[in-house]
Specification:
Elements lengths: L13 E5 L6 H5 L12 H12 L4 E9 L2 E8 L3 E10 L4 E13 L4 E10 L2 E13 L3 E13 L5 E16 L3 E17 L9 E14 L10 E13 L7 E13 L9 E12 L11 E2 L25 E2 L1 E18 L4 E16 L11 E12 L5 E7 L5 E6 L1
Parallel strand pairs: 1-3
Antiparallel strand pairs: 2-3, 4-5, 5-6, 6-7, 7-8, 8-9, 9-10, 10-11, 11-12, 12-13, 13-14, 14-17, 15-16, 17-18, 18-19, 19-20, 20-21
Length: 405
């Protein structure tokens, strides 16, 4: 009995890419994992969309299956983005102004080149180049040169800090990322006031860093689901004999869940935990290694300044060890939309966060627990991370506004 083979209209026969006027085609094809000659898999199709969008160089990514063709349609974002630096520091309580340029698709290879700085207020400049996939399987290269000239807001001195980093990394599978960095850091005081007795006028370190990241988020900038786990270690070898070497260990975990609630658009619940531990003891650390538990980086709803904290908490704010966690509910207010190569959208956020700080690992205590809560907004623009403004409150009647990106 003869066997008749009928054509399979669900097979992917070819992949066509359209819209990449500047981006090299191999940059796009290496992100597409749907096999040719296999039936269409809608799950892989959605994952391919997310991988291309996560490159950060397209304002629109769409994949359609028509006539056995895997049709990839792209809208490239502007490659060169001017950066008007208008920044307010909660710590220095100063505005800074400057200008920069970001090339987010250098040579069409998804390389990010940035050059810019602030020239009024807190003065700094930075130049960086990042190639997330320079050769092989996700072998990356990143370099940063940074200089900052500023006043320390907590102690009476002015300093100049210089940082230079060379970093490379690779992937193991799609979710496991490893990075290795070698950097140089110098911190020199130009004026000296009332500082701790052991504080030196100059510090120089050679830093060895290692980062591991496990990432299953669907969209990096605004996840609907997935997890992000990371570990960072750093060993700083002092290049000056009378200064101590410094070791640092940190970890973080974030989880995202898309909820079903008819009164909100794409509501996402997330929670996270972060731990930071430094050695040697607090009294042997230089001032630039001190951490401050309140403010935009950790517990929102509090100041970064110890003297602005509620009575009884001052000594537990300027610390070297931190355990921090948060709960957030985020929902779309203005759906992200392509406005001619620039994507823009707004989300609303409700949050509760808490943290404990200590000067030694053995001194962690729930008696020092800080709790903050509030609401805010995230503004999504193609290219940079989202800009957020958060209005934080605490149980002691204080309120603070936190602006960050």
């Amino acid at each position: 009995m003869p066997l008749f083979l009928l054509p399979n209209n669900d097979l992917v026969d070819k992949i066509i890419i359209d819209g990449n006027k500047k981006t090299k085609e191999n940059v796009i094809r290496r992100e597409i994992l749907h096999p040719i000659g296999q039936p269409l898999d809608s799950l892989i199709l959605n994952e391919d969309i997310n991988r291309l969008y996560n490159l950060g160089i397209f304002s629109t990514v769409d994949i359609q299956f028509k006539n056995n063709t895997y049709q990839v349609d792209l809208v490239e974002s502007f490659s060169i983005i001017p950066d008007l630096v208008i920044d307010y520091s909660e710590i220095t309580k100063k505005w800074s102004y400057g200008f920069g340029l970001a090339h987010i698709n250098f040579f069409g290879l998804n390389q990010q080149l940035y050059l810019g700085g602030a020239f009024i207020g807190e003065k700094w400049f930075v130049i960086s180049l990042n190639n997330p996939w320079i050769y092989g399987d996700h072998v990356s290269f990143n370099t940063v040169l940074y200089n900052r000239f500023s006043d320390n807001p907590f102690y009476d001195y002015r300093f100049n800090a210089t940082y230079f980093l060379v970093e490379t990394g690779f992937y193991n599978g799609l979710n496991n990322k490893f990075e290795f960095g070698l950097s140089y850091y110098k911190n020199k005081k130009h004026t000296r006031g009332d500082v701790p007795q052991n504080e030196q006028d100059i510090y120089r370190y050679l830093n060895l860093e290692f980062n591991y990241q496990y990432d299953t988020r669907d969209v990096y900038k605004d996840p609907l689901k997935g997890s992000l786990f990371g570990i960072n270690t750093r060993y700083s070898k002092s290049l000056i004999n009378n200064n101590s070497d410094i070791s640092q260990l940190s970890f973080s975990l974030q989880n995202f869940f898309l909820l079903k609630f008819k009164y909100l658009h794409e509501p996402v619940f997330s929670y996270g935990i972060y731990g930071l531990f430094k050695f040697p003891k607090f009294l042997k650390l230089p001032i630039h290694e001190y951490e401050y538990l309140g403010g935009e980086d950790f517990v929102r709803g509090y100041s970064s300044f110890p003297n602005e904290y509620p009575d009884g908490f001052e000594k537990n704010i300027e610390v070297s060890n931190i355990i921090y966690n948060y709960l957030e509910l985020q929902s779309t207010i203005l759906k992200k939309k392509d406005y001619g190569k620039i994507e823009f959208g707004i989300d609303g956020v409700l949050f509760i966060n808490s943290g404990i700080g200590s000067k030694a690992i053995k001194q962690f205590s729930f008696d020092n627990l800080l709790i903050g809560y509030g609401f805010g907004f995230k503004f999504f623009i193609t290219g940079p991370p989202p800009i957020s403004i958060m209005f934080g409150f605490n149980p002691y009647g204080q309120k603070y506004t936190h602006l960050s990106n």
